[in-house]
UniProtKB/TrEMBL annotation:
Keywords: Acyltransferase, Lipid biosynthesis, Lipid metabolism, Phospholipid biosynthesis, Phospholipid metabolism, Transferase. This is 1-acyl-sn-glycerol-3-phosphate acyltransferase. PANTHER family: 1-ACYL-SN-GLYCEROL-3-PHOSPHATE ACYLTRANSFERASE. It comes from Pseudomonas azadiae. Residues 68-183 form the Phospholipid/glycerol acyltransferase domain.
Length: 248
């Protein structure tokens, strides 16, 4: 019953926020800070509706370099709500072009200045990547990327794709890693307290002086650091859960 109530309220919330987000986009179209504002509109009410307790330790993200590439693990569609609270100032996202057909959200996403890539068309995808590199170099705007390219559904990090690392090296900007604990297989939306989520950002990794030859090693380093951080957070949550049970 609680699950059905939550899903109904979330559907209503999604539509209302979509309308508000489109209005914001129409008032200031393609402003790179629209993404942060709309992310907050989605995330803040959603965390209460879903009963998720999110703890964010993201100083290196809040105090990030003025321009950088942000990479994060991608678990599910709920990431929109979980990560919406930590999207920093003037940061846009890269996503698949098909998102633009999602009613209200797709139009909001486009008007917020985010980048839509046609993954089925290599030429258009490369052109979009060149555009984002220009944005990183000239417009004081950061790019948020899910380097796995798709949702991992809580089964661990999927192999990274090279796009985010190509962009960072081409623009000569740092990479900031954002790690989210495994929540998608643990949250229980039929309970008032449906679960705990930890978010941590890691220190920026500079790319100045690197070339495309350095991409494999850079990818390996980022993947290893993010895996270690996620495992550490998952252990912390398990330990906290056991302590809570023993205290009862």
């Amino acid at each position: 019953m609680l699950f059905l109530l939550r899903m109904s309220l979330m559907g209503l919330h999604f539509m209302i926020t979509g309308v508000l987000g489109v209005l914001i986009g129409l008032c200031r179209p393609f402003n790179p800070d629209n993404s942060r504002l709309c992310a907050r509109l989605y995330a803040l009410p959603a965390m209460r509706l879903l009963g998720l307790n999110v703890k964010a330790e993201v100083d290196s993200l809040r105090n990030k370099p003025s321009t950088c590439v942000v990479i994060a693990n991608h678990q599910s569609n709920y990431d929109l709500f979980v990560l919406g609270n930590v999207v920093p100032h003037r940061t846009v996202c890269i996503a698949k072009k098909s998102l633009k057909w999602v009613p209200l959200f797709g139009q909001l996403f486009w008007l917020a200045g985010n980048v839509l890539i046609d993954r089925g068309n290599a030429h258009k995808a490369r052109r979009a990547m060149l555009t984002t590199t220009h944005t990183l170099q000239n417009k004081d705007t950061s790019i948020w990327v899910f380097p796995e390219g798709t949702r991992n559904l809580g089964k661990g990090l999927l192999p990274f794709k090279k796009g985010a690392f190509h962009m960072a090296i081409a623009a000569g900007v740092p990479i900031v890693q954002v790690c989210v604990s495994n929540y998608v297989t643990h949250m229980q939306l039929n309970r008032w307290n449906s679960g705990d989520v930890l978010i941590r950002s890691l220190p920026p990794i500079p790319t100045t002086g690197l070339t495309t030859d350095d991409i494999p090693q850079l990818m390996q380093t980022c993947e290893a650091q993010m895996k270690a951080c996620i495992v550490e957070m998952d252990y912390e949550l398990v330990g906290a859960s056991l302590l809570a049970k023993n205290a009862r």
